[in-house]
Amino acid sequence: MARSRLARSLPWPLLGVALAALALTATPPVAAAQGDDRCLSADLPPVDAPARPLRFGITPGAAGTAGPSQGAVAPENRTAAIAALQGLESPKRELVLRLNRLFWADGDEGIRRFAAMADEYGRAGLASEIQVRYHPPEGAEGDIDRWEGFVRRAVRELGPRPAVAGFSITNEANFPVSPNTSDGAYDGVIDALVRGVAVAHEELVKLGRPDLPVGFNVAWRYTPDSDARFWTEIGRKATPAFRRGLGYVGLQVYPGLVWPPAERPGVTAGEETVEALTLIRRCYMPKAGLGGDVDLWVSENGYATNQGRPEPRQAEQLDSTVRDVHRWSGTLGVTDYRYFNLRDNDSDGDDLFDAVGLLRDDYKPKPAYAVLGGLIGQLGREAGAAPIAPAGPGSRGRRVRPRVDFRVLPRADLRGRRRFAVRGRLLLPPAV
Hints:
alpha/beta; two-stranded antiparallel sheet; GH; GH39; signal
């Protein structure tokens, strides 16, 4: 599927205008069905299966800047980040880190850098899944044989590590207007997705780790016609090896930020997310011949606190989303939820994703930090009995726990909406 140079260079504000225009023309909800080719909207389905515990996760690194290149990020403090991540953990509940932005363009040096990150987090007792981006090097766009080689090398290096918990192949291949964040801007992306998933799983089988999930994700959403063509093309190009290797489809959904570009009156963040999950499961995935044997994840979800958006509102939206995803998890086959991301790039910045973190750029927690920690404890999936082994021969990792001193006080306003008052602080180790 060719991607036009015009689409790649489209400024993000113009895309927002286009999405807003699309929102104004959207039809009222109808039941999602494969026959509705454009998959515009869906009623929330009846809850007809018990809710499942969710495997939670979070992206610990910087958010990608929307558009062609990466913007400035406040200086990072890995020790503070690890302490905050450990503060989110709940006893006997899984928490997976989503390590993003391993570009093909970064080559073997990028693979080594991600291996070092996975090792560092592993020594702290944290599991990681790896996002392997298509984002090709100069002159290699569309060379899928070379891309396959990169995926194989990445999996061979990272897959044997006990702290590596899975792989995501390509990022937002349906979204053609933001090359820094989304692989849909590059020619050959669907071939890269299909063949990348197949060879990643093949390498994991060789390594004796066929159980590690391999999947891909989509942005919610681009234009209905473009998204429908994307899924149909996946079905046309899908091989038996791809279908054998595919463990999950991830939804990357930002209600009020990307789609819909503004909050809809009377519709909660959770309802927006469940509608999107319903359309993915019951309208889009069937176009590619993907059924109930493929898990559905929320691989990214976040809410911003810049440009006049209050921090307590972020906490409310997060709570609404996770509780509704959990409620419909059995009905829609949802197994995983990932928040994006841990810390703001720039708490006072103007980019779309500058301030979606649970922490401000100085590592001080927002109210949503405590809310997510509580949700992990309430709704999270039990961790396996085996602890994560430190990476490397003879390595020893000191597990430093922060002390999180806070109270979360939920209440309802006059309209019955959930509100939160959070009082407290994150006490980091002295070395931070």
